[in-house]
Design brief:
Radius of gyration: 19 Å
Keywords: Signal
Number of domains: 1
Order of helices and strands: HEEHEHHEHEHEHEHEHH
CATH architecture: 3-Layer(aba) Sandwich
CATH class: Alpha Beta
Largest sheet: 8 strands, mixed
CATH topology: Rossmann fold
Strand content: 15-25%
Shape: globular
CATH superfamily: Alpha/Beta hydrolase fold, catalytic domain
Strand order of the largest sheet: 1-2-4-3-5-6-7-8
InterPro entries: AB_hydrolase_fold (IPR029058)
Helix content: 25-40%
C-alpha cells in the first residue's frame, strides 16, 4: 500500500512539472479586394477544460511578425510563432504570413493581421481591443507599420534586430498620434550580420527621443541577428518588453 501511495505521489509530482504549452490552431485569411491569402498560426492558452472558455475570453493577445517578409515562402506564419508562444502560454499568440509583394509594409499584410484578430474575437466571443506586438529582423517593420495603420490599440512592442530606416526618418515616423501610446523596447546587437549597429543605433536613439512615450534601446555588443540569440542570451530583456 505504501508503495502504491508513493507511486501515485511520484506521478503527481511529475505531472505538475510538465510545462503548460499553448494549443496550436490555424486559419487561412482572405484579404478582401486582393488575391492575397495568408496562412496564419494561432496559439491558444492551455487550461483545464472547465476554464478554457473563460481564459480564452480574457487572455491578452500578442501578434508575432516573422522575418523574411519578402521571401517566396508564403506560409511562414503557420509555425513562426511557435517558439514565442511556448514562452507565454497564458497569452493568445497570432502569427500572420507575409511574403513577396505582400510584405509587412503593404496594406494587404496589415489588413490580414486585423482580419486574423477579428477571427480570434469571433472564436472567443469577446472583442480584441488591445494587442502587443513582437517582430524580429524585418518583422520589426510590421510592428511599426501596424502601430501606424492597424485598427487595435497597442500596449507593448518588442523590436529585435530592426532597421527602421527602411520606413524613413525617425522623427517623422514617431510623430503620428497613434505612435504615442504603449511602450517600445528595441533589442539591438553589435554583431548583427545584416543591420550594422553604427546605422541602427542612431536611428533608434532618435526615434525614442521623438516618440514621447516609454521607449528604450537595449544594446548587446555581442548580440547577433537571429531570434535564437535573443531567446538564449537575453530572456530577461524579452520578459521586460512583453509583460505577463
Amino acid at each position: 500500500m505504501k508503495l502504491f501511495s508513493f507511486a501515485v505521489l511520484l506521478f503527481a509530482l511529475l505531472l505538475s512539472s510538465v510545462p503548460v504549452l499553448a494549443v496550436p490552431d490555424s486559419l487561412l485569411v482572405d484579404v478582401r479586394g486582393t488575391s492575397f491569402q495568408s496562412p496564419t498560426g494561432i496559439w491558444w492558452p492551455k487550461a483545464a477544460k472547465a476554464k478554457v472558455k473563460t481564459l480564452r475570453k480574457t487572455a491578452p493577445v500578442v501578434v508575432w511578425f516573422h522575418g523574411g517578409m519578402g521571401s517566396a515562402n508564403c506560409a511562414k506564419g503557420l509555425v513562426a510563432g511557435t517558439d514565442f508562444a511556448e514562452l507565454y502560454p497564458e497569452k493568445i499568440v497570432v502569427s500572420v504570413s507575409a511574403c513577396r509583394e505582400n510584405h509587412w509594409g503593404s496594406p494587404a499584410a496589415i489588413t490580414a493581421v486585423d482580419a486574423a484578430l477579428d477571427s480570434i474575437a469571433a472564436r472567443r466571443k469577446a472583442p480584441v481591443e488591445r494587442v502587443s506586438l513582437v517582430g524580429v529582423s524585418d518583422g520589426s517593420l510590421g510592428v511599426l507599420v501596424y502601430s501606424l495603420e492597424g485598427r487595435r490599440a497597442v500596449e507593448d512592442r518588442l523590436l529585435m534586430s530592426s532597421f527602421g530606416a527602411f520606413l524613413g526618418e525617425p522623427a517623422g515616423l514617431a510623430s503620428p498620434k497613434k505612435m504615442r501610446t504603449g511602450r517600445f523596447r528595441f533589442l539591438q546587437g553589435g554583431k548583427d550580420r545584416l543591420y550594422p549597429s553604427d546605422q541602427t543605433v542612431p536611428w533608434i536613439t532618435e526615434f525614442c527621443k521623438a516618440v514621447q512615450v516609454d521607449c528604450e534601446l537595449r544594446f548587446d555588443p555581442e548580440g547577433e541577428h537571429d531570434w535564437s540569440y535573443w531567446k538564449a542570451k537575453r530572456m530577461d530583456w524579452i520578459r521586460d518588453a512583453i509583460r505577463k
